[in-house]
C-alpha cells in the first residue's frame, strides 16, 4: 500500500537537486546551501562514506542493482534531515520509491542541461561508471539516451532550472523560485 506522506513546511522541507550527470547538482547544491544557511549533503558521497568504497568500485564489484539499493537506503536516511539541501545521483529518480520519498519530504529542482553541456563538463571520468566510453560521439549518444529515458521523471520536479551557463545564473533562478515558498 502506498504511504501518504504530508509535505513539510518550507523550513523543514529538504531541497533535492535532480538531473543528469554533469548538470551541476553538487556545485549548485553547495552554493544554495551556503546561501540559505542549510546543511548540504551529496548522496553519492554519503554512499561512498557508508560503503567505504567509491561508486566506481561498487558498480564494478557489486553491480548497478546493488548500487541502486544503497542509493535508496541513503535517500531514506538523508530524507530524515530537516531543511537540508541534497544533491542526488542522476539515476535516483528511476525508482518510484525514491520519487515518493523526494515528494514527501521536500521540494525538487530539476537542473536541466543539454547533453552537449554534460559532455563538456564530464571529460573522461573514471568515477562515472555509466559513461565509460572513450569516444566522444559515443559518450554523447549515451548521454542523449539516458536523458531520453529519465527526462519524464526529471520533469515531475517542482521547479525546472536551466543550467547550461555559469552556476551563479542558475543559483539566482533557484533563489527566485524558492522565494515564493518561504
Ligand atoms: C549516476 C550518476 C552518478 C552516480 C552514479 C550513477 C546515474 O551521480 O550516482 O554514477 O545513473 O546517472 P552524478 O549524477 O552526481 O554524476
Topology record:
Blueprint: E1 14-18, H1 25-36, E2 40-42, H2 43-51, H3 55-62, H4 64-78, E3 85-87, H5 96-105, E4 106-112, H6 115-121, H7 136-154, E5 159-162, H8 167-179
Parallel strand pairs: 1-3, 1-4, 2-3, 4-5
Helix pairs in contact: 1-8, 2-4, 3-4, 6-7
The protein binds shikimate-3-phosphate (S3P).
Short note summarizing the structure:
Helices cover 51% and strands 12% of the residues. It is α/β, with parallel strands linked by helices and 182 residues long.
Structural class: alpha/beta
Distance between the termini: 32 Å
- Strand residues, percent: 5-15%
* Number of E-state strands: 5
Individual helix count? 8
Strand order of the largest sheet: 2-3-1-4-5
Indicate the overall shape: globular
Rg for CA atoms: 16 Å
Q: Which percent bin holds the helix content?
A: 40-55%
The largest pleated sheet is described as: 5 strands, parallel
Question: What is the average per-residue confidence, as pLDDT, rounded to a whole number?
Answer: 93
The low-confidence runs, each spanning 5 or more residues with pLDDT under 50, are none
Bound molecules: shikimate-3-phosphate
Order of helices and strands: EHEHHHEHEHHEH
Amino acid at each position: 500500500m502506498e504511504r501518504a506522506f504530508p509535505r513539510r513546511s518550507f523550513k523543514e522541507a529538504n531541497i533535492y537537486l535532480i538531473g543528469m550527470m554533469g548538470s551541476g547538482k553538487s556545485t549548485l547544491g553547495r552554493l544554495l546551501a551556503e546561501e540559505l544557511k542549510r546543511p548540504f549533503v551529496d548522496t553519492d558521497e554519503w554512499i561512498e562514506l557508508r560503503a567505504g568504497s567509491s561508486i566506481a568500485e561498487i558498480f564494478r564489484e557489486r553491480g548497478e542493482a546493488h548500487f541502486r539499493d544503497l542509493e535508496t537506503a541513503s535517500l531514506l536516511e538523508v530524507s530524515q534531515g530537516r531543511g537540508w539541501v541534497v544533491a542526488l545521483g542522476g539515476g535516483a529518480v528511476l525508482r518510484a520509491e525514491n520519487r515518493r520519498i523526494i515528494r514527501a519530504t521536500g521540494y525538487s529542482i530539476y537542473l536541466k542541461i543539454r547533453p552537449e553541456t554534460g559532455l563538456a563538463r564530464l571529460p573522461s571520468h573514471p568515477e562515472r561508471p555509466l559513461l565509460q566510453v572513450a569516444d566522444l560521439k559515443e559518450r554523447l549518444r549515451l548521454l542523449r539516451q539516458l536523458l531520453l529515458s529519465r527526462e519524464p521523471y526529471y520533469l515531475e520536479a517542482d521547479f525546472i532550472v536551466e543550467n547550461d551557463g555559469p552556476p551563479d545564473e542558475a543559483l539566482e533562478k533557484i533563489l527566485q523560485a524558492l522565494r515564493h515558498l518561504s
